[in-house]
Amino acid sequence: MTKIDVLCRCILPCFSSAAAATDSSTTGIGTTTTKKRLSTSLRDDIQDDHLRDLPENDEDSTTTDESIAGPGHPHQAPPRPSKTMVIGTIFGHRLGHVWFCVQHDRLNTKPSLLLELSIPTQQLVKEMRCGLVRIALECDRSDLGSCPLHSVPVWTMYCNGRKLGFAIRRKPNENNRVMLKIMQSMTVGAGVIPAGFGSADGDGELMYMRANYECVVGSCDSESFHLINPDDCPGQELSVFLLRTR
């Protein structure tokens, strides 16, 4: 065997194995590259799907947060004042003083509150011509802080911001009961009863105005009565406030 044959047998297998290794390595790289691209594309798809789901999750979380911060945990509201409907009657002799009577039942001649005000009847009529009357009754006596509001015997009276003496709680007398009995069939109305009813003739006729009032009880120390005007009558704003300070 010549030297050339020996060299061919020894050297050619080396080149063949290197070429095969090169091909296999090339094929492996290509496969690896392909797998890498496939994996990348799958990750991209997964990320896209995840990104599509994110807004929904955000909306759900936002809704959950809103539901937690909103109706789920409402703030405690302050107690509301109670409101009821009562019948109020303002009456007085033309030359006398004004009385204010509150009834829960017009058929009951025993009112729940009866006050004699120091304001003259004619002066109240003048105040009512302006269309706005605010009567405020205040009590600042510490010794009367524990009794019911309707049992306070004496109030300091203000009419449209001006101090006008006092208001005194009264028990209904026979004349008051007779007058209320005459008005049992009346819920809303105003009129004049001839002179001599319940007083001397010198005091003149008995003038009255009867209407529905909204009674608002704010607390055990505050209560107010607001005139409710009939639909076919001009607006007359008249309110009576009871306020006790301790």
What do you see in this structure?
The chain is 35% helix and 33% strand. It contains three helices and ten strands, in the order H-E-E-E-H-E-E-E-H-E-E-E-E. It has a nine-stranded mixed beta barrel with strand order 1-2-3-6-5-4-10-9-8. Strand 8 (206-219) and strand 9 form a beta hairpin. 17% of the residues are buried.
| Strand runs, count | 10
Report the portion of residues in β strands: 25-35%
Biggest sheet, spatial arrangement of strands: 1-2-3-6-5-4-10-9-8
**Proportion of helical residues:** 25-40%
The chain-level mean pLDDT equals 76
Counted by DSSP, the helix tally is 3
Q: Please state the CA-atom Rg, rounded to the nearest Å.
A: 47 Å
How many strands, which pairing sense, and closed or not: the largest β-sheet? Answer: 9 strands, mixed, barrel
- The arrangement of helices and strands along the chain is HEEEHEEEHEEEE
- Give the CA-based shape: elongated
Structural class: alpha+beta
Spans of at least 5 consecutive residues with low confidence: 17-48, 54-74
Terminal-residue CA separation: 134 Å
Features:
246 residues; alpha+beta; 9-stranded mixed beta barrel; 3 helices; 10 strands; elongated
Secondary-structure blueprint of this entry?
Elements lengths: L2 H67 L12 E12 L3 E7 L9 E8 H9 L2 E8 L14 E6 L2 E8 L4 H9 L6 E5 L12 E14 L2 E6 L9 E8 L2
Parallel strand pairs: 4-10
Antiparallel strand pairs: 1-2, 1-8, 2-3, 3-6, 4-5, 5-6, 7-8, 8-9, 9-10
